[in-house]
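Example (one chain per record):
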Amino acid sequence: MPLTFQLDPPLTPALRDGILTLWTDVSNAGGAVGFVPPVTPEAIRPALIQHMAGMAEGRQRLLAGFDETGTPAATAFFTFNTHHLMTHWVWLYTVMVHPAHQGKGFGRDLMTAAEEAARHFDGIDAIRLTCRGGLGLEHFYSSCGYKEVGRVPGAIRVAPDDHRDDITMLLPLT
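Predicted structure:
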């Protein structure tokens, strides 16, 4: 059963808790979404609150993918630039699909839905995102039309002896 994507779903307690569970499950499965396993929901909660504050202030928007039970199974957060020379592109953050749904094409569906949503944002010409090196994520994003436009070697420390590249990807919408 495919996921149903919704831009700006109502931020209910159930959605908030569902995203927190999703983020925790993705992180603990080794997903590169800002944390290193093992991680608890309590460790992730401040990052989610930051996203929610950005949404309340109009600086961020949420694209959520729901499974057939209405449970959040995928997310991507758009963040708008505030610098006047960079308002023509958005960041895409916390792009994730629940481990139980991986391998079904839902990641590509999420990226397609994100592209479609961004095409309807006034004045937006491109999407940028960053990904952690060492997992092949740049190849996935490249297959979705993104181009690697920057790489900082060793910028992400996932453990004292494990440094990964911080890779910037760009998807022009024009």
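Caption: The mean pLDDT is 98.
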